């Protein structure tokens, strides 16, 4: 009876978690859309816009280890709720400023820093809590539904933002975000973060581990897990080399091929639709048997697709053919991204002990956030010097070679010993 109640509660968590994520992500993305346009209209400066991005990335990179420590040492439910309340207060503060003194860049940048930190604490803590919120058999479903809500927001928020911007004032955008944040707080407050959790109980009178030692312990734990370490190293290479795609895609389409803004928007939408459809697929199917192997070939396909972005620079295409080519390419890009990410995320959720999840996920977050800007700056510099097609093709080949080396057959068999057993059984049958 108790087990049935727990499973019912887990089902409730699945949908509450999804709706909460959808509402808060949608609100955040509509706000981000509006504030980006506002900064550009206010200043007409790309550097002012870039500074807002830095205010979003830099605090996350610096504070991520502390967020991981907090997620492992304190109540995860409390951290998520406090982070969401802080988001509401920050937006409320910006609303008051806009109504009394008018929006200034300082107020916007300050709010961006606070929102960056609250989303970091909420994101790392939620990632650490999946196995506590749902039963083991539905971890893949939870991860897929989470990605589905992000994909819905990615598709809908630019459309909603575009329709409302100019039609309503900035305070209306801020009020919408506040309402979304309050709904998320109410939903999160009904969730039981300890339902399936396997965290060690704190013993009264036991000396507390110093924060720095605790962070080091998280790093040591990661280094002792060879498969987990390989996953992290591969993800770091992906984040770095994907700078070639992130910078190159817009540069090639807008600057080199002169695709108009509407058609460029179609290609971006195709990417989100690809992610959405595969999210729905993974939420309805059984968990994959060999997630590491699936992710390995997913990354290889991503490498091929990344190189294919440069194809229209090598082969002449009509304007219609060009748009169709990139819509199809970006659809497969989004779909392959899900095939790569979902299985590995599920595997990590199962591999990492509950007491270390926060610190391990925060280490990954720190490295990824640090390498992304570095990759974008480096590739931005390279695109000014070398041909775009050369940079993309070399980067895609590097990504494929690194993946094939780091996830070589011996490593795959270590991650999935049953594959090795199948091979031995096959050889015995053949002989």
UniProtKB/TrEMBL annotation:
InterPro entries attached to this UniProt entry: MFS, MFS_trans_sf
Membrane-spanning ranges: 12-40, 46-67, 79-100, 106-127, 148-168, 174-191, 230-252, 264-282, 294-315, 321-339, 360-382, 388-407
Localisation per UniProt entry: Cell membrane
Pfam families per the UniProt record, alphabetical: MFS_1
Principal location class: membrane
Highest rank taxon of the organism: Bacteria
GO cellular component: plasma membrane
Presence of the UniProt keyword Membrane in the record: yes
Keyword annotations: Cell membrane, Membrane, Transmembrane, Transmembrane helix, Transport
SUPFAM superfamilies on file: MFS general substrate transporter
Topological category with respect to the lipid bilayer: Multi-pass membrane protein
Keyword Metal-binding carried by entry: no
GO molecular function annotation: transmembrane transporter activity
Protein known as: Predicted arabinose efflux permease, MFS family
Organism name: Psychrobacillus psychrotolerans
């Amino acid at each position: 009876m108790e087990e049935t109640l727990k499973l019912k509660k887990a089902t409730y968590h699945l949908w509450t978690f999804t709706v909460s994520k959808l509402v808060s992500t949608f609100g955040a993305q509509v706000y981000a859309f509006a504030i980006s346009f506002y900064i550009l209209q206010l200043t007409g400066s790309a550097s002012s816009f870039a500074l807002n991005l830095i205010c979003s990335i830099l605090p996350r990179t610096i504070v991520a280890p502390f967020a991981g420590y907090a997620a492992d040492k304190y109540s995860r439910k409390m951290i998520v709720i406090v982070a969401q309340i802080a988001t509401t207060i920050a937006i409320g503060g910006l609303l008051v400023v806009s109504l009394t003194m008018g929006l200034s860049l300082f107020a916007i940048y300050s709010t961006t820093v606070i929102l960056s930190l609250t989303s970091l604490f909420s994101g790392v803590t939620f990632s650490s809590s999946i196995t506590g919120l749902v039963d083991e058999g539905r971890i893949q479903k939870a991860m897929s539904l989470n990605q589905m809500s992000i994909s819905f927001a990615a598709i809908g928020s630019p459309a909603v933002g575009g329709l409302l911007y100019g039609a309503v004032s900035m305070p209306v955008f801020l009020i919408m975000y506040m309402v979304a944040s309050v709904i998320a707080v109410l939903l999160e407050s009904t969730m039981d973060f300890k339902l399936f959790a396997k965290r060690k109980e704190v013993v009264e009178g036991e000396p507390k581990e110093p924060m720095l030692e605790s962070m080091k312990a998280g790093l040591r734990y990661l280094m002792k897990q060879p498969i987990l370490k390989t996953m992290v190293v591969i993800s770091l290479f992906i984040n770095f080399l994907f700078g070639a795609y992130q910078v190159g895609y817009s540069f090639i389409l807008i600057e080199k091929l002169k695709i108009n803004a509407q058609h460029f928007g179609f290609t971006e939408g195709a990417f989100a639709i690809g992610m959405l459809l595969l999210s729905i697929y993974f939420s309805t199917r059984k968990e994959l048997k060999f997630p590491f192997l699936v992710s390995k070939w997913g990354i290889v396909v991503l490498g091929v697709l990344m190189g294919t972005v440069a194809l229209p620079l090598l082969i002449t295409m009509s304007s219609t053919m060009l748009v169709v080519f990139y819509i199809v390419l970006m659809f497969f890009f989004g779909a392959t991204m899900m095939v790569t990410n979902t299985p590995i995320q599920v595997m990590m959720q199962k591999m990492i002990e509950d007491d270390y999840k926060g610190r391990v996920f925060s280490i990954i977050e720190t490295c990824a956030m640090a390498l992304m800007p570095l990759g974008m700056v480096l590739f931005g510099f390279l695109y000014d010097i070398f041909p775009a097609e050369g940079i993309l093709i070399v980067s895609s080949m590097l990504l494929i070679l690194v993946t094939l080396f780091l996830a070589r057959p011996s490593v795959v068999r270590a991650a999935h010993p049953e594959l090795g057993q199948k091979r031995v059984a096959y050889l015995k049958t053949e002989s």
